[in-house]
Amino acid sequence: MGDADPNASTSQTLISKLDIGDPLYLHPSDSSALTIVSVKLKGTENYSVWSTSMKLALEAKNKFGFVNGKCERSTEDHVLASQWNRCNSVVLTWLLNSVSEDLFLGQVFSTLALEVWEDLKETYDKIDGSVVYDLFKKINCISQNGSTVADYYNRLTTMWKQFDAMLKLPTCSCKAAKDYNDFSMLIKLMQFLMGLDDVYQPVRTNLLTREVFPSVKVAFSVVSREESHRMSSSGSKGQNVSFASKSNQSFESRRKAPNQRGPNPSLKCTAKRTHIRHVFEHVSCLLSLNIIAGPLYEVNGP
Fold it and tell me: Residue 164's domain spans which residues?
């Protein structure tokens, strides 16, 4: 029998000793068939959402270094270099699994995850005036339209976050940045109130006439409580009306129904027998008196 390759044994030992926090470590579940995000890249219209979700997923897997260039291939250790190639292939398949079929055909022959990531960014990370205009128009045209307040607020919040990601709001702590963020929050408050159904007009007026405008979250909380109050009130009224209707129907049915009971023949017969027995006893008593005291006309006398 031939001797086992000592290099293969050494490589296997070295890979098994990789720390779980090392980018080269692959968990058994990190297969090439895995889809790590639920959003498929279609093009410019959803690149911002796709890239953000993909970045979060890769960071959770500790593999974002393969697309931003921070995790480099080893040139000294062929074992680690081989493991890097394996990890790169896994990350590359994750990227390809998360794009549309048209984009997949254009990237399937790539060999580096970094090249695919940068190519997609250069091609689709383009924010021009038309994209900003379309999204801002959607935000201002959205309305509750009979849906729940929570559903309406969630739809608005999603578009607000997309819009903020496009414009890249300042994150510094200077006064100008604070004023700009305050103005942005005011615009969002107005957009939220404008799209509410007309039944919330009193609540909207109350919020707009305050000396200090509330935040969007506070306004959402107030409107949600009003919605809950309306739903509970309408439910109670419906139950009361239903109970009253059933009660009236029951009363009317009893009032209009014919008397099904009627006289009880046995009770009537018993009453007759009792009456006859009393009469008989009374007559017997009178006859006894007549026998003892003589004829009645003599007892009563003229």
Answer: 134-230
- 110 and 138 belong to one structural domain: no
The secondary structure element, H or E, covering residue 90 is helix 78-97
pLDDT at 2: 47
Nearest-angstrom CA–CA distance, 258 and 261: 9
How many other β-carbons are positioned within 10 Å of the β-carbon of residue 83?
22
For 258-274, b where at least 16 C-beta lie within 10 A, e where not — what string?
eeeeeeeeeeeeeeeee
CA dist 242 and 100 (Å) reads 54
Does residue 261 belong to any structural domain of this protein? no
Give me the phi and psi of 164, to 5 degrees please: -65, -35
Q: Do 156 and 180 share a domain, yes or no?
A: yes
Domain tally, the chain: 3
**Measured distance CA(37)–CA(264) in Å, rounded:** 82
* Same structural domain, 55 and 141: no
- Answer yes or no: do 164 and 109 share one domain: no
pLDDT digits (tens, 9 = 90+) for 160-215: 988 888 877 667 778 888 888 889 899 999 999 999 999 999 999 999 999 999 99
Cβ(49)–Cβ(161) under 8 Å? no
Would you state the structure tokens that stand for residue 248, as one six-digit string?
A: 């009236």
pLDDT, tens digit (0-9, with 9 covering 90-100), for 108-128: 899 999 999 999 999 998 877
Does residue 141 share a domain with residue 95?
A: no
In a domain, 258, yes or no: no
On the 0-12 / 13-18 / 19+ scale of CB atoms within 10 A, 72 is exposed
End-of-domain residue from the set 96, 124, 152: 124
Residues in the chain: 302
Count of CB atoms within 10 A of residue 219's CB? Answer: 21
Q: 207 vs 140, 215, 228, 298, CA distance in Å?
A: 19, 10, 18, 108
Give me 203's structure tokens: 């609540």
Q: Which residues contact 212 (CB under 8 A, 6 or more apart)?
A: none
